[in-house]
Amino acid sequence: MSGIQGLHHNAYRCRDAEETRAFYEDFLGLPLTHAFQIGETKSGRAASVLHLFFEMEDGSALAFFEAPLEPFTFKAQRDYDLHIALEVAPAKLDAMLAKGRAAGIETRGPSDHGFIHSIYFRDPNGYVIELTAKIGDGHDPVAARAAAPAVGGPGAATKTAAVSTRETTKHSRAPRSPWCGRRAPLAPVRAPPALPPRRRARRRQARFRPLGSAW
């Protein structure tokens, strides 16, 4: 056993503590449970940092650092680069979608992923925040197969997960991302045939070209 009991918090940088509080507490409804200043790091370096914690119903939290003297590049994140998914009841999605639009917050959705429905917002720091609700019993057959007890000795669990991944990429298509303009098939990545270096570089660039996500 690892002894790890669950997620306590994830922490991110924020541009402005009050703007961040307004989004997570006033808009999303996550209470601000802790806020404290950090004047010195454990290595003895002077700091001027404000640390915020917003608690979810399971006791875990989203945390933020406002550190104006520390360099950091904020940007509008794409959903497949970085996004934070928070689970809600299905009835909450429509209400929050309408609330986000009324508040003038950048909003997308709903998106049907087959086993969950999701809506998306952009927070004041450029992060994509997903609210997601399970469909029906929320059963995810791929995740269930990957988590199934290993049969056949060491390495069997890894093989089970690999088989599940291959089945998914072989038989399904990617759900439409709210930030994408078109649907693309999921397909296993195959090694390219032997080509001269320049042609290999062009093929590699084409294979990993972004799929048109607005974020």
3D structure, described in words:
There is one protein chain. By secondary structure, the chain is α/β, with parallel strands linked by helices. It is 27% helix and 26% strand. It has 5 helices and 8 strands. The protein has helices at residues 17-27, 90-102, 141-147, 156-171, 197-207; strands at 9-14, 32-40, 46-55, 61-66, 83-87, 107-112, 116-122, 128-134. The strands form 2 sheets. A 4-stranded mixed sheet has the order 1-4-3-2. A 4-stranded mixed sheet has the order 5-8-7-6, covered by helices on one side. The two termini are 39 Å apart.
Task: Give the SSE map.
Layout: E1 9-14, H1 17-27, E2 32-40, E3 46-55, E4 61-66, E5 83-87, H2 90-102, E6 107-112, E7 116-122, E8 128-134, H3 141-147, H4 156-171, H5 197-207
Parallel strand pairs: 1-4, 5-8
Antiparallel strand pairs: 2-3, 3-4, 6-7, 7-8
Overall pLDDT confidence = 78
Shape: globular
Count, helices: 5
- The strand order across the widest sheet is 1-4-3-2
Instruction: Assess the beta-strand content as a share of residues.
Output: 25-35%
Helix and strand composition category: alpha/beta
Largest sheet: 4 strands, mixed
Number-wise, the strands total 8
- Terminus-to-terminus distance: 39 Å
Task: Give Rg in angstroms.
Answer: 21 Å
Low-confidence stretches are: 156-166, 168-175, 180-187, 203-215
Proportion of residues in helical segments: 25-40%
Report the order of strands and helices.
EHEEEEHEEEHHH
